[in-house]
Design a protein that fits this description.
alpha/beta, D-Maltodextrin-Binding Protein, domain 2, ten-stranded mixed beta sheet, 11 helices
Length: about 325
């Protein structure tokens, strides 16, 4: 009988230890993150500004986390295809989203998104941002935003402007200017900032409104005159170009951010780790120089700051798009 009790006791102890091991296993697995390759989904084609930032982040993560990080470009639908993929991914920290302001703009433009920008993602870090710029060729004879507005008012509907496409922040910035200044300038949408810039350069279009990166070298070379940038302050490498606020439009800020998200439900310790590593990586002189070359300024914000930024941006964009009556689908 005593032997039987010992056997039963050992069996109970073994069972208890087995339960304990399995209970601790998920925590141990999470503590070891990352154990395999991380996929960084960019919802735009390779070579664009968001892709450039993703490659800076992927290299930094590989160094700090000790695992491979691949950039997975999933373009299509104005970014909606790639964002939908991440929204449905397993929330284990191995599939992340690096996207532009499209995550905040698209809810105002599309009626049937494959994701919810607030509910389906865990904010990690606002990485960088950049203003848009309003610019013309020197041959236009326009040297300031006030002169552009005066010419547009003198001949409504005769000027046109190029943007990277319907619903982009650059398009919305120009439309906001039109609303606030009370002017009529015809929109000519292009497929990207590069083609829109070339449209102004070759004289096809009178005015450009694009993100700063593809335009800045041409401004410095004297090919364009920058009338205003749409950031909260003057751009560090174009100190003579006024902001929209300085040009007479209080509160006029329309910048483009790139930010890192995980699928909703990702363990908070993984989100916290990725946030710390993102901020640390972006504060290095090398990352700052790379971001500046790509036309961005470092933000390196916290998850809480990105959560607030996203909610504010979505609300403001819906209000503006509603006033403009813009719809993509």
């Amino acid at each position: 009988m005593g032997s039987m009790r010992k056997i039963v006791g050992r069996g109970a102890l073994t069972a208890a230890l087995t339960v304990l091991i399995f209970a601790l296993a998920p925590a141990a697995a999470r503590a070891a993150y990352p154990e395999r390759t991380i996929s960084l989904v960019v919802p735009f084609p390779a070579g664009g500004p968001t892709d450039i930032i993703a490659r800076i982040v992927s290299v930094a993560f590989q160094r700090s986390l000790g695992q491979s990080v691949i950039v997975d470009n999933r373009g299509g639908g104005g970014g909606n295809v790639g964002m939908g993929i991440v929204a449905r991914a397993t929330p284990d920290g191995y599939t992340l989203l690096l996207t532009s302001t499209a995550i905040a703009v698209n809810p105002a433009l599309y009626s049937n998104l494959p994701y919810d920008s607030i509910r389906d993602f865990a904010p990690i870090c606002e990485l960088v941002n950049a203003p848009n710029v309003i610019f013309v060729r020197p041959e236009s004879g326009i040297k300031s935003l006030a002169e552009l507005i005066a010419r547009a008012k003198a001949a409504p509907g005769t000027l046109n402007y190029a943007s990277p496409g319907v619903g982009t922040k650059s398009h919305l910035a120009a439309e906001q200017l039109k609303l606030r200044a009370g002017i009529d300038i015809v929109h000519i949408p292009y497929r990207g900032g590069g083609p829109a810039t070339m449209g102004v350069l070759d004289g096809t279009v009178h005015v450009g409104s694009v993100a700063l990166a593809p335009v800045e070298p041409l401004i410095k070379d004297g090919k364009f005159i920058a009338l205003a940038v749409t950031g909260a302050k003057r751009w560090f490498s174009l100190p003579d170009v006024p902001t929209m606020i300085e040009a007479g439009f209080p509160g006029f800020v329309s910048d483009t951010f790139n930010a890192l998200f995980a699928p909703a439900g990702t363990p908070p310790e993984i989100v916290a780790l990725l946030s710390r590593e993102s901020q640390a990586a972006l504060k290095t002189p090398e990352a700052r120089a790379q971001a500046h070359r790509a036309g961005y300024e470092i933000v390196a914000g916290t998850p809480a700051e990105l959560t607030t930024r996203l909610a504010t941006e979505i609300a403001a964009t819906k209000e503006l798009v509603g006033r403009l009556g813009i719809k993509v689908d």
